[in-house]
Amino acid sequence: MTESFYRPGDPIADGKAPAGPIADRWTTRKFEAKLVNPANKRKKKIIIIGTGLAGGSAGATLGEAGYHVVQFCFQDSPRRAHSIAAQGGINAAKNYRNDGDSVHRLFYDTVKGGDFRARESNVHRLAEISTQIIDQCVAQGVPFAREYGGLLDNRSFGGTQVSRTFYARGQTGQQLLLGAYQALMRQVDAGNVELYPRHEMLDLIMEDGRARGVIVRDLITGEVKRHTADAVVLASGGYGNVYFLSTNAMGSNVTASWRAHRHGAYFANPCYTQIHPTCIPVSGDHQSKLTLMSESLRNDGRVWVPKKTGDTRRPYDIPEDERDYYLERIYPSFGNLVPRDIASRAAKNVCDEGRGVGPGGLGVYLDFADAIERLGRKTVEAKYGNLFEMYERITGENPYETPMRIYPAVHYTMGGLWVDYDLQSNVPGLFVIGEANFSDHGANRLGASALMQGLADGYFVLPNTIGDYIARNDLGPVGEDAVLEAETRVRDRIERLLSIDGDRSVDSFHRELGHIMWEYCGMERSEEGLRKALELIPALRAEFWTRVKVTGRGEELNQQLEKAGRVADFLELAELMVIDALHRTESCGGHFRAESQDEDGEAKRDDEHFAYVAAWEWAGEGAQPVLHKEALEFEYVKPSQRSYK
Amino acid sequence: MKLTLRVWRQKGPGDKGAMVEYALDDISPDASFLEMLDVLNEKLIAEGEEPVAFDHDCREGICGMCSLVINGTPHGPERATTTCQLHMRKFRDGEVIDVEPWRAKAFPVVKDLVVDRSAFDRIITAGGYISAPTGTAPEAHSVPVPKPDADRAFEAAECIGCGACVAACPNGSAALFLGAKVTHLGLMPQGQPERWDRVVGMLETHDEEGFGGCTNTGECTVACPKGIPLDVIGRLNHDYLKATAGGRKK
């Protein structure tokens, strides 16, 4: 029945992952890769879009390797990429705690945590590289938390039972990003990286079916510029802002990926959106974004709601026996540390029952009273002080005295452009790394694994695999026709956006789209809701192109024009997300289909029919997308129903 | 809440700017300062006027993109707070609020409230890093770092590079920004080999970019949203003297 929304296409094979024992595959791949002669590297140009953990580390490493790197970011400095906001930590299988951790256990946990919708080969490589990442970052001077003996400290993190998370207070992303940024600036100083901040990629230059460059807009002058290269790397992050309200930075967008998708790059698993359980609840209509509270808070905070529905007493007036510590009750072995999808949906369920707290009843308590009593306020302050401060600033409430209120929010997207084992998309010469690709997280990402993937891709994987592509393809200069074609597309689109001169602001469209997505393609999706969204989104898109008002001109700093282009792409992506969610009639990880649950209300996966990656091909405007399936095989981790009880 | 805003409007770098007054009503006290500006912009668009350009991104107080001099103070009246984390409940109903860009020679205005802070990147490029080629790092536990050093390095490393220190300084000096980086890297064993080159390179670039000299007024640390302490400047001066004295560096 859902077939009417898409057309089936040919299946795809996960090319390039070498055969053999899983622990040897990455070593094998590196050895098989053709090398570029060091003297030739500087003649080879690589474009990188984005300067976050993935892009920044890739630029630094490729620059150092001797390639000529041309790198862009839309922010005013590479140091501001949104990776900077990651709070909690980064996982690595160092087993410094002697608690039974190993590469194999990290691999196992990640495959299981991804609800058996990630690739074994990729995830194993990620686990292997994790230890090297910590070494690299320490060498760069990243000030990780230390113990009194001077060695690195660790903590446990949502979804795992071993302490393998390295952290720098609640600002791990910031410190890791600054490490990558500084390494990148060192390459700028050395002349290996040409850096263009406040530039946005608006299209891909394609020649003979290959990615050969990009068209960018200088966000200060409005000038449309062309850059050609031997290969293009997208490290442009996730697309959670399709929901308008999310934990993403305001500028985070899908444009670079979406423009590539329109040139044939498959978009994989777009419906897999991770909802983060510990965000500060919405306070009003003015709200522009949601703020995440690090998941590490769940190590010591206890989640609860009143047992009675509609209990409006203040939290400290509710006696112990009238509180429901529902995570500890339903999931006794993991308790407050259950994975994100489980914690998020459990919060939604108790709120749906009318037991939610705070304005509008959309919130649950995260209570530190026990931790403060057990550890003392000073210890709690040392661990979480900055998070408590942030909470107080936003809500005006003091979490040392009254429990925090939290609610789930859109955080991270596990879908993204399809890539092979080499992180190359199906468009030759187009590589995709970090959150912008789909490959390692399956349907649900565990805490502290996104930072690990961004840095693994950028420091260690891509620099090895892209060399193989460059060594095998000696490409000449790009023809003027290909460049002009891309440039014309960009100019026409800018012109079109500016000429509509309607009566509705860009933000008003974005907000409306966000409402539709959260309502019908959010924490829980149903066939009925998704079908409704498929009527609403195209109508909203049509209205956008007739009624949007973009003020100002193209040849200047024009923030409305920037937003308009991004929202136009979100309006197309949203439809694909809904189609993907509709066709996947199973529940897995962050994708919970109302029709697919067991008698306890737990997610019911369907391995028989859905153990595949859904890779979508663009078929043109208004045409049904084509679904290519990549079968997933599990040789090392037997798929089992995830149970945290 | 009802508010009167006086906002700096300037079309481009070469144009003359002026304060323009706008009246707003119905602002939620729970809105952040930037969300209040979003409301203003929606209103301006509806009235057919150009919205106010301002910088912002993460809105979580960590990316360092937001700026604004609010009632004469960088990032506004609340201590240790970025503009994006400043909420309207900190203002009075009916208040008149002045909103201006960072004011410093080294941060030229791009448009309205947006300034160019790329000089900071050039200071980092001149040595604000540890040279650690990818893939050659020793095992992380092979170099212990005393916890007090790691903690102090972390405090300095918290700098978000927003530039409030420069905007607050009567001399337009970036000594706090620079001191924070020199302190962060100089306290770690990994940062020692390049310690002296780093401080000299960064300070030379700082001066070339048009930042002023530091006269220890301390305004920077008062304005800093991350509470970077003034003693990082002491460390900067100490390292610079040590690097240049006795002919170690020119």
From TrEMBL, chain A:
Entry keyword set: Cell membrane, Electron transport, FAD, Flavoprotein, Membrane, Oxidoreductase, Transport
Catalytic activity: a quinone + succinate = fumarate + a quinol
InterPro entries tied to this protein: FAD-dep_OxRdtase_2_FAD-bd, FAD/NAD-bd_sf, Fum_R/Succ_DH_flav-like_C_sf, Fum_Rdtase/Succ_DH_flav-like_C, SdhA/FrdA/AprA, Succ_DH/Fum_Rdt_flav_su, Succ_DH/fumarate_Rdtase_cat_sf
Ranges for domain FAD-dependent oxidoreductase 2 FAD-binding: 46-451
Molecular-function GO term, any one: succinate dehydrogenase (quinone) activity
Subcellular location: Cell membrane
GO biological process, one term: anaerobic respiration
Principal subcellular localization: membrane
Source organism, top-level taxon: Bacteria
Cofactor: FAD
Active site: 340
Assigned GO CC terms: plasma membrane
Ranges that cross the membrane: none
UniProt-listed Enzyme Commission number(s): 1.3.5.1
Domain named Fumarate reductase/succinate dehydrogenase flavoprotein-like C-terminal: residues: 510-644
Family: Belongs to the FAD-dependent oxidoreductase 2 family. FRD/SDH subfamily.
Protein name in the entry: succinate dehydrogenase
Originating organism: Actinomadura viridis
UniProtKB/TrEMBL annotation, chain B:
Annotated transmembrane regions: none
Matches recorded under Pfam families: Fer2_3, Fer4_8
GO BP field: aerobic respiration; respiratory electron transport chain
GO MF entries: 2 iron, 2 sulfur cluster binding; electron transfer activity; metal ion binding; succinate dehydrogenase (quinone) activity
Domain 4Fe-4S ferredoxin-type positions: 150-179
Domain 2Fe-2S ferredoxin-type: residue ranges: 18-103
EC nos: 1.3.5.1, 1.3.5.4
Keyword set includes Lipid metabolism: no
First-tier enzyme category under EC: oxidoreductase
Keyword Electron transport attached: no
Highest taxon listed in the record's lineage: Bacteria
Keywords: Iron, Iron-sulfur, Metal-binding, Oxidoreductase
Swiss-Prot/TrEMBL cofactor(s): [2Fe-2S] cluster; [3Fe-4S] cluster
SUPFAM superfamilies attached to this UniProt entry: 2Fe-2S ferredoxin-like (SSF54292), alpha-helical ferredoxin (SSF46548)
Family statement drawn from the similarity comment of this UniProt entry: Belongs to the succinate dehydrogenase/fumarate reductase iron-sulfur protein family.
Protein name from the UniProt record: Succinate dehydrogenase / fumarate reductase iron-sulfur subunit
Organism: Actinomadura viridis
